[in-house]
Amino acid sequence: MTAYQVVYRTTNSAGEPTTASQFLVLPKTFGRRLPTVAWLHGTIAYRKDTASENPGSSDRLAAYLLASTGRAVSAPDYVGLGAGEGFHPYGDPRATVAATVDGLRAARAFAHRNGRELDREVQVSGFSQGGPATMLVGRALQEEGADQYFRLGALAPVAGPFHLSAFEAAAADDKIDKSGLYLAYFATAWNKTYGLYSSPSEAFRAPYDQIVEELFDGYHTTEQIAGALPPASKDLFTSDFLDRIRTPSGVLKQRLHALDTTCDWKPNVPVSLFHARGDKDVDASHSAYCAQQLKDNGADFRLTDIGDHDHNGSVEQALPRIVRFFDETADAD
Length: 333
Prior knowledge:
Blueprint: E1 2-11, E2 17-26, E3 33-40, H1 58-67, E4 72-76, H2 93-113, E5 117-127, H3 130-143, E6 151-158, H4 164-172, H5 179-193, H6 200-203, H7 212-215, H8 222-228, H9 233-236, H10 239-246, H11 250-260, E7 271-275, H12 285-296, E8 301-305, H13 311-332
Parallel strand pairs: 3-4, 3-5, 5-6, 6-7, 7-8
Antiparallel strand pairs: 1-2, 2-4
Helix pairs in contact: 2-3, 4-5, 4-10
């Protein structure tokens, strides 16, 4: 297989032109036409930790694994990460879909110049943040006509925070691992994107209000951020801001609703949800929440508990199962 970093044009959360990058892997097969997978990564704060930039990235390994089965793999870094421009609008539906679909278009054009063709049906999978992203991209391809060429083939999200308002409320109550860091990334990114507070001191306690936004500029590593901030939300945020997270209103409630309903539609393709009962970051209730929305819409899905593993362990356990699921889906066509 051969791997590339591809920089391409897309749009940001405001719909404005920007650039993004992706890790593209093309397998070495005898056939000209290639089955296609989009792999959507989880939370990344440091822009160089993406698959296209970091040789040791777990997402790069995931892309290689998927490509080893004869598939072309498009693994977008998302807007504001990797070699792209601007900041990362963490979880924003508009930018997430744009970076993924435009990444697939760029992958198709690149493959064509190399004498290969990508299948129209694209199988979509992703981990953690990439779980809701998987469902957002699937809905855009199936229901919103996001691309004239690509069609949805299958969906396989892993350990996604599908009930984001509940996830952030749990982070506010320090009920998840690394709660303060998750919530700080969320708060600073969403403030840039949507406007959540008028000044950092409104959301963050001193002295962290003086440094937190700079720490989440995309150029500080996770270790640097963790070393500078307390791990608990109660020590990092003001009590008023934590109350706002627990009982959101206004623009926060509106934006959270969009990410509480990423599974609230009926895919016309097979869906396989994966979670680990040992996950202390995104617990299994989130996959159950997604499954209930799919069930209410009459969708065809399966929900698999892959065992007593932690958050990162869940994706390691899920990937071989995703390959088998995608093989089954392709064989059924």
